[in-house]
TrEMBL record:
Gene3D superfamilies: Winged helix-like DNA-binding domain superfamily/Winged helix DNA-binding domain. Residues 55-154 form the HTH marR-type domain. This is HTH marR-type domain-containing protein. It holds the Pfam family MarR_2. InterPro entries: HTH_MarR-typ, MarR/SlyA-like, WH-like_DNA-bd_sf, WH_DNA-bd_sf.
C-alpha cells in the first residue's frame, strides 16, 4: 500500500522526470542504479496506461482478453485458430479462452466451425462484425500515444518492451 501512496504523491511531471534523469554526459536515460520505488512507479504507470486504453468497462463491451483473441484471430492462419493455440499464445489455460470465445460468438464477433481434419476440434474465425470491431481496437489508441514520442524514444520503448518480454519468457521457461 505504501507504494501506491508514494506513487500518488508524485506529480505527472515528477513521474516522467525521475525516469529520464540526466546522466553526467547530459544524455536522457535512466541510470543503472535506479531506485526500487522508481521501478515500481514506472510499472504502475505502465499498468495504468494499458488499463486506460480500454475505456469501455461494462460487461456488455469487448473486454481486454476478448480483444487479445480478436487480434490473434486477425493475424494467424486458420490452422492456428484453435482454442489450444490461442490459449498457448496468450499464456492461459483453455477455460478462460473458451468462455471468452463463447461470449464473442454469442455477440457475433467470431464463429466456431468443425476442423476438416478432426471433427472434435473447432476452428475459430472472425465474422465481418469481428473484423469491423478491430478498426476500433483500443491498442490503436496506445499506438497513437506512443507515436507522439520522438522517434528515438519510440525505438527505445519497443526495444525495452521486447527485452523485458524475452527476460520474462526466459524466466518462465527456467521455472517450468
Amino acid at each position: 500500500m505504501r507504494t501506491l501512496e508514494l506513487y500518488s504523491e508524485l506529480s505527472p511531471y515528477d513521474r516522467y522526470a525521475w525516469a529520464h534523469e540526466k546522466q553526467e554526459g547530459g544524455a536522457d536515460r535512466m541510470t543503472h542504479d535506479v531506485d526500487e520505488k522508481q521501478l515500481i512507479a514506472s510499472i504502475v504507470l505502465l499498468e495504468r496506461f494499458v488499463r486506460d486504453i480500454y475505456p469501455a468497462r461494462h460487461s456488455s463491451e469487448i473486454q481486454p482478453l476478448q480483444w487479445s483473441i480478436l487480434r490473434y484471430l486477425d493475424r494467424m492462419p486458420d490452422d492456428r485458430c484453435e482454442l489450444r493455440w490461442i490459449a498457448q499464445f496468450l499464456g492461459l489455460t483453455r477455460a478462460p479462452v473458451t468462455r471468452a470465445t463463447a461470449t464473442l460468438e454469442g455477440r457475433g464477433y467470431v464463429t466456431h466451425r468443425a476442423n476438416g481434419h478432426d471433427g472434435r476440434t473447432k476452428t475459430i474465425g472472425l465474422t465481418p462484425l469481428g473484423i469491423k470491431a478491430l478498426s476500433n481496437d483500443p491498442i490503436l489508441t496506445a499506438v497513437k500515444h506512443i507515436r507522439k514520442l520522438p522517434e528515438a524514444e519510440q525505438s527505445q520503448f519497443m526495444n525495452t518492451i521486447r527485452s523485458i518480454a524475452l527476460i520474462s519468457e526466459s524466466a518462465s521457461d527456467d521455472t517450468a
